[in-house]
Amino acid sequence: MEVPCVRVARERGEETRRRLADDGLLAAEFEIEVEDGYLYLPVTDAEAVPDDLDADVVSRSVGERETPDTPADLLGFEPTYERLGDIVILDEDDPERAREIADAVVASDIPVETVVNRASKVKGELRVRDWEVLVGESTETVHREYGCEYLLDVAEVYFSPRLATERHRVAEQVKSGERAFDMFAGVGPFVVPFAERGAEVVGVDLNEKAVEYLRENARRNDVAERVTAIHGDVRDVVSGSSDVSDGVREVATDYADWADRVVMNLPHSADEFLDSAVELAGDDCVVHYYDIQHEDDPFGPGETAIRDAAEPEYEVEVETRHVVRSYAPHELNVCLDVRLSR
Prior knowledge:
By secondary structure, this protein is α/β, with parallel strands linked by helices. It has helices at 13-22, 71-75, 95-107, 164-171, 191-196, 208-220, 234-239, 274-280, 300-310; strands spanning 2-9, 33-35, 38-42, 56-61, 81-84, 87-90, 114-118, 131-135, 140-145, 148-153, 179-182, 200-205, 227-231, 259-264, 281-294, 315-328, 331-341. It has three domains: 2-61, Alpha-Beta Plaits (2-Layer Sandwich), CATH 3.30.70; 71-138, CATH 3.30.300.110; 157-341, Vaccinia Virus protein VP39 (Rossmann fold).
């Protein structure tokens, strides 16, 4: 049967499939097909496919699914879950409902090794959660995103697959030869693609386990020679007030005036680190500043905080005011792409 399909390179297939499913656009009654390195993902409405998906919509003859093989088919309702590698993540308050969904996930054709249910909110300065493991044993997995792969443990580090499109948006701005600094690097979802595009990248994180995964992910993606991964408080690293190591060698601790690009993805408290970001900035530097604010004025508080920290030493130009996603009722997760020019 001829249906509209999103055509995407195989290495981007999983995050694209997930994005379409989250938007309710994936036509689950048709088969996903593979040909010549491309996946063809049937969609319910070609015109509703988001422009920022960066994929072609084509018409193609695909087969119909003959057997119920999704959790929704088996449950009779559409459950909410996320996929991270071979882990399925639930967010259910009712233990019986969580168990019912976990059993359906395992019985479906989803390739899954572990099913976990969120048992707490993100907490502490390391931004980790408690989890209830419903199926399987290991909470470690390999997540693939825009051609890169990341080894991580959801019980040890913070990672959101929902931000894949946003990370790709920023990574596409990076040019070879840049010097980029990720102030809250985690397992490397900004660092690795930046380095893959030819940048020299420093990633810092307070979570020692995340930094270990960052080093491993730099090796996995063949960019280790362009990545410096540092465990510590980024304010100490920037000021040079503590001795730090990237796990392999001693590294220079004076990063003042060093960066062409700075990522500040700590939305609830990035404003507390703006003085360090300004200290990092070279003569011409782009800062990607993430914030969570009320929908009535999602960008104003962040822009004011940046100007207060950077002016008059720098001219401040907001290049992009971008809504990343809805965070909570009447609250938005946003990004300001800001150029600082000395």
